[in-house]
Amino acid sequence: MKLIRRIADVRAEVARARRDGRRIGFVPTMGFLHEGHLSLIDRCQELADWVAMSIYVNPLQFVPGEDFERYPRDLERDRKAVEERGVDLVFAPDDRELYPGPQTVVVTPRRLADRLCGLSRPGHFEGVLTVVSKLFAIVQPDVAVFGQKDYQQTLLIQKMVADLDLPVRIEVAPTVRDPDGLAMSSRNDYLSPEERQRARRISRALAEAVKDYRAGQREAGSIRARVLATLEAGGGFDVEYVEVVSGDELEPLERVGDDTVVAVAARVGATRLIDNVRLGNPDPGLEALV
Ligand code: AMP
Fold first, then answer.
1. Quick one: which of 63, 177, 203, 254 is 20 to 30 A from 150 by CA?
2. Residue 183 CB less than 6 A away from ligand 1
3. Measured in angstroms, how far is the CA atom of residue 72 from the centroid of ligand 1?
4. What's the gap in Å between 215 CA and the centre of ligand 1?
């Protein structure tokens, strides 16, 4: 496994792999890796025979006042974890390598970014799409794998690839959870033991939404109210949103179906957590709670 800092060196390694006839897979991350990230590598290895991962905390996608400075970083630990998992290349640039000057051109979504997480994080998805398109241009992968945990992000990336005719296949892998249901996240590291306990309510609330759906509930308003009530029971939670939306367009719904996504963002103490479930197809960790 090679740890590479420079764009030119990544290009050279990818060119070599391609000359050898390899199909190139790519997993972009911000590091401080957990099993959720590593599951994306596993999926990528099923779809490609040479896998690159990027580890880069992208300043462009942090809104002023967010946790850019204190976002957890541990490149040495990450390097060991991906080495064991069989990644071929890790690209870990510094800010000057990726952004040598101010960006004159960025990728701005016209739709879908003005809801859910976009409301409290204006400019966030512009930062995400800009860095992902830069990384795609550097690695030129045949396939790239993203996690359903960041549902709105996966949707916007799929729309970007379609709208800009980018020659990459986007694969979405299921959310990986701790045994108690909490979706894994680098930010879980911020939680105190007591906050960690409280955070379990998010996955429990989503499991209840699935239960209600399976029992025949089709009213989006009722499902939303049930999720909200579970989140707010006992306090200690600052709910940012609970949305019941179509999986393809994030449209608010009155009636739900298999493709409906229930998405939640909430603050536990100072930590912002997000999670979601597709009602007709819960990830295995959530299924275990239903
Ligand atoms: P991040 O490092 O948080 O930017 O995430 C990098 C990639 O890992 C994104 O595609 C995320 O959706 C994905 N990811 C993060 N957490 C999880 C999880 N618990 N399960 C599956 N994928 C995840």
1. 254
2. yes
3. 14
4. 31
